[in-house]
Amino acid sequence: MTENYADKTRGLLEVLNKLPPKPQITFRGYVDRTVDHVRVVGSPALTATTHSLEIATNNLARPEVAIVVGANGRDLTPNMEGAPNFNLQEVTYLPNSYFLQHVAHEYNGVTIQVYEEIVLNSDSAGFTIAHRLPSWDPVLAVLDPALRAARERRSPCLRDLGQGSWSPFTDIPRARIAHLSQVGEPRASRTGSRPAPRAHTRGGRTGSEKHTEEYA
User: Fold this and answer.
1) How would you classify the pairing of strands 90-93 and 97-101?
2) CA pair distance 95, 99, nearest whole angstrom
3) Terminal-residue alpha carbon distance, the chain
4) Which secondary structure element, helix H or strand E, spans residue 116, and what is its range?
5) What is the distance between the alpha carbons of residues 64 and 70, in angstroms, rounded to a whole number?
6) How far apart are the C-alpha atoms of 186 and 195, rounded to whole Å?
7) How far is CA 15 from CA 26, 188, 194, in A?
8) pTM surpassing 0.85?
């Protein structure tokens, strides 16, 4: 690693630490089919996810997607508005983040694998799920429309990426690090650009009527 790249990486970490963490459901493009039981996995590096299933999977180049349910990801999307070619709607988790990796399953024509962010307890060997969901309905509420969108259209920015789907612990490309390290203070999202969270409806409803929870 060159000194210049190390400096830019430190600048990126400073930007990430200034961004507020918040509960989100995002995507990655790699599924580990060898996993046969729920296990804890950790990343010593930055872990990049994205709001866009199309970007995460290169428009389902392979019929698989990982779904990350977490509470401490930093959303870089507003900061990248000045560099649209590198705006991958990215939500990045800081080094030394931990996740519960679930067994992969087939769903609606694709293989899916859920990762739940966990926080290790300092006073015991246990952990706490960072963003505990009452059911899998909120995940399906995000996944189903994302799958439809990926099958119906091609994301224009993918033509400029020159890469396949995102694999575990992928480094953030240097061009985006260079842009982010020059951003400085994080900019607030424009008012009304994303919906506010709504309460999850449970009991007495079925199908799509139950899928009412959204994450800003």
Assistant:
1) unpaired
2) 12
3) 36
4) strand 110-120
5) 20
6) 20
7) 20, 13, 22
8) no
